[in-house]
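Changelog-adjacent note: as of this version, every example in the card shows the full chain rather than a window. The one below runs 338 residues end to end.
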Amino acid sequence: MIQIATALSLLTATFVARADEGSATATPKSIEAASSKADPVVQIPPEGRLPRALVALSPSSPYALVVDKSQRTLTLWKWNGEHPSLVKAFPTDIGRNDGNKTSEGDRRTPEGVYFFQSVRDKDQLDFSLYGVRAYVTDYPNYFDRLEKKTGTGIWLHAIPDSQTLWRGSKGCVVVRNKVIEELSPYIQLRATPMVVQSRVDYLTPEDWQAEREKLFSWIEKWRTAWEAKDLDKYMEYYDEAFRSNGMNKTKWRAYKTALTEKYSYIKVNLKEVQAFKHQGKFMIRFLQQYESDQKQDFGEKILYIQDSTKGLGIVGEVWQAKAQPSLASSNTGSPEKN
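Full-length structure tokens:
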């Protein structure tokens, strides 16, 4: 069972209404960046609005970074149990060329949801180029690979004060040395996301909550269809382009049919749900407890979902067995097994 907070009245009361906020796409107010007058001007998100991209963060990994390329601003958000709350905003540099990264060497910053896989400190870096620390992301991610994007080595890294944040990177997201040191305590490898978008879309609490509830209702219906061994209903949640563990949708149905006939019952419980949205694509990540009369396992599952004219559909699914009760030590590349 998935637990979803629906206390919308409490959520709305958290924010102070402003007469000049306008619509959900209101232009953010500007403040001078503290690190350097020459740096980009930090754009504070509209007060009382929530980033559409952050649908849910887990208790064990409650922080997320959001990069608005058009505003050259990186924001840090914390999940407070009901919704993400803004912690702080920082100036940032991005790829030298405009647009979304598609190929190696195009000097563009990719857009999507990325997780930090490893960290490199000062003694492993050229200080003049990368400062005191760099976090290596998992670009190209699942959706990037589906779109056959190329390139590697997209980092969140620092630069010293002697360098400008206007120079343009080879595709990395760049901040000041003191900023990356400030961000480091909030980053858990393979658990903390960095969402990069050309322009971040902000919603009112009511609209944000409505979108969240719609998505979580869809996930719950997928879960209950699987648990009820209703194969016809279960397969409705899978896109025709679905691929997992070397199987297309037809082979996946045959595989699941065999398991349904083999087991007298199935129980599926989800917890520690993370959910992110980017341009009609969703990444849903959670811990899954699976049980039948012949098998029990526990691990992390990721659903890659795409919105189309036919509605939401799962295009990819990966699974990794694990013993620890959190997402923090997981990775994002193992195939589905149950």
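Structural remarks: The chain has seven helices and 18 strands.
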